[in-house]
Amino acid sequence: MSNDNFGISEALKALGIKAENSGSSTGTKWLGSKGELIESYSPVDGKLIGKVSTTTEDQYEEIVKTAEEAFKSWRLIPAPKRGEVVRQIGEELRKYKESLGKLVSYEMGKSYQEGLGEVQEMIDICDFAVGLSRQLHGLTMHSERPNHRMYEQYHPLGIVGIISAFNFPVAVWSWNTMLAWVCGDVCIWKPSEKTPLCSIACQNIITKVFEANNVPEGVSCVVNGDYKIGQLISSDKRIPLVSATGSIRMGKKVGEAVGARLGKSLLELGGNNAIIITENADLEIAITGALFGAVGTCGQRCTSTRRLIIHDSIYEDVKNKLTNAYKQLRIGNPLDEKNHVGPLIDKDAVKMYENALEAVKAQGGSIILEGGVLSGEGYESGCYVKPVIAEASNDLQIVQEETFAPILYLMKYSTIDEAIEMQNGVVQGLSSAIMTTNMREAERFLSHQGSDCGIANVNIGTSGAEIGGAFGGEKETGGGRESGSDAWKVYMRRQTNTLNYGTELPLAQGIKFDF
Ligand code: UN1
Question: Could you give the CA distance from residue 92 to residue 195 in angstroms, rounded to a whole number?
Fold first, then answer.
């Protein structure tokens, strides 16, 4: 079935995507096509969707200068007024939910339902940011000196650089920008070169709102290109905060470059997420949670479930139930709602999936539900693969790595201590879950003796976090927190103010300085 039957051409038209697009923008203005072209092919059907020109160094300079100027006026607009702009963006996103969801699905390969879910996260973060725009509060403390007042304020930082990954091609941008904007910052976004058209669409969606509200040019900038543009951002002293989502390898490079100039970075890197299934689990919840976590987005979420740590008394039962559930999965065009699993992002990802399966066998694991690359009608892109279940011990090198593919490793435990040690026994620390109806096990898992991850759930899988909580992880996941709770503080600088309204100058710590 041609993808036009799913309304792709219409969606592209509505979003202002052309055959060739400039990839460099300062907000409402596109800077023209100067650099090499990135061709965006759909993993759904292997067809060319459109081309995007990369940002040249000259264009990058122009963009940073425009952003610097924009910051000077944007920060003067009261935060609730900036929130009003974000509220209107949320309204626009509601109007474009279907077309943007479709583009996300077609360019990235996740299911249309998940594409819609991703746009919903954008709408949710807009709503969150609107409320936040009236709550950017600091504390007031009592001074030790008489007639003094001491308090803290949060001020905007300046330019925020955002480097985002292909797997959440629009939501991650919005988590960062919507908060940054209400905080008074301006943004420069470098999307993944695998999903450049999503950045064009988002930029087109905000244009109308920016024009109607006279938002200064430079508040919402887009640059496109490969890692070299990422390097420019990371080493640019004019960009006080760089928020980067992607692999640990990429994050270490960004962290080093930003650290070398003592900038701030917000890193949201790889996960190696496990679910512990105890003998007290509700197995229906456990199997559904594990299944969605492992095969949702074709295993390409940073929160995807990669390991199942199962109590030995129920191991065989879980293994059989899960294998049966996997056999019901329909793999195919993600725009077709009857399919559960879409393609991997590209052929490089397919190669990594194949290499990982080789490694499992070579390192002593065993595959219990075979994988393989699908071919034939509907699978012409060469990116569709079968989700795999393997048995492998936690210390295998391949189990220790994050393979961005639907490969799930099963392993046994006998005591809860052992299970928690296995769950924590990886370098990553993003998401984790325990399936149990036993209060002691649940509380133990959530305590300081439990999961060492940024996200720890009970009777919920590892993926599908809501935007209201702070999102991110520990250890090599990078330590950053995005979206909800008080993650906004990263986008601002804190200033402590002490004000003397008396007629004398008493010094702190009781020091006397007479002259
Ligand atoms: C990611 O994969 O980078 O928790 C983010 C989830 C989504 C976000 C995933 N809300 O699955």
Answer: 21
| Fold category of 3-269+478-495 in CATH | Aldehyde Dehydrogenase; Chain A, domain 1 (3.40.605)
**Residue 39: how many CB atoms within 10 A of its CB?**
11
Q: Residues 82-140: pLDDT tens digits?
A: 999 999 999 999 999 999 999 999 999 999 999 999 999 999 999 999 999 999 999 99
| Contact by Cβ (8 Å): 49, 106 | yes
Can you give the pLDDT at residue 4? 83
**String of b and e for 180-207 (b: at least 16 CB within 10 Å)?**
bbbbbbbbbbbbbbbbbbbbbbbbbbbb
Mode of pairing for the β-strands spanning 428-429 and 431-435: unpaired
Burial of 493 from C-beta contacts in 10 A (0-12 / 13-18 / 19+):
middle
| 475 CB within 6 A, ligand 1 | no
Q: Does 302 sit in the ligand 1 pocket, CB within 6 Å? A: yes
- Which residue of 108, 463, 467, 481 sits with most ligand 1 atoms within 8 Å of its CB, as the best mutation to test the pocket? 463
Question: Is-contact 59 24, C-beta < 8 A?
Answer: yes
Residues 6+ apart with CB under 8 A from 416: 276, 278, 441, 444, 445
Q: 57: how many CB neighbours lie within 10 A of its CB? A: 11
- Please state which CATH class domain 273-471 belongs to: alpha beta
Q: Is the pTM of this model over 0.90?
A: yes
Show me where the domains of the chain are located: 3-269+478-495, 273-471
Query: Could you tell me if the CB of 315 is within 6 A of ligand 1?
Result: no
